[in-house]
Amino acid sequence: MAKYLVRAAYTAEGVRGLRKDGGTGRVEAVRNAIAKLGGEVESFYFAFGDYDTYVVVDLPDNASAAALGLAVSGSGAARTATVVLLTPAEVDEAVSKEFDYRAPGG
Fold this sequence. Notes:
Strand order of the largest sheet: 2-3-1-4
Order of helices and strands: EHEEHEH
Shape: elongated
Largest sheet: 4 strands, antiparallel
Distance between the termini: 38 Å
Radius of gyration: 17 Å
CATH superfamily: Lrp/AsnC effector binding domain/regulation of amino acid metabolism (RAM) domain
Helix content: 40-55%
CATH class: Alpha Beta
Oligomer: single chain
CATH architecture: 2-Layer Sandwich
Number of strands: 4
Number of domains: 1
Structural class: alpha+beta
Number of helices: 3
Strand content: 25-35%
């Protein structure tokens, strides 16, 4: 499974929903949604700043991650930004790949 960091910023509507459901209610709703996509939540944190939540999830593929982002953003209650996370082993594999590349202007 692939790992993703999903950051979400609540809209005013989302904050009203959070006040109604509470933090644990939101975590449970997200866990259920991720499970229906065939994944699981590794960690879920609320935060101050540009984003209100930081959620690390395991999902089967990029299409599942895109489906999650579209559903959350489409609800109007939050906007999301999803980051694909790589393991150290995946970085090792990436840096071991050799190929020719010409930089712009090079």
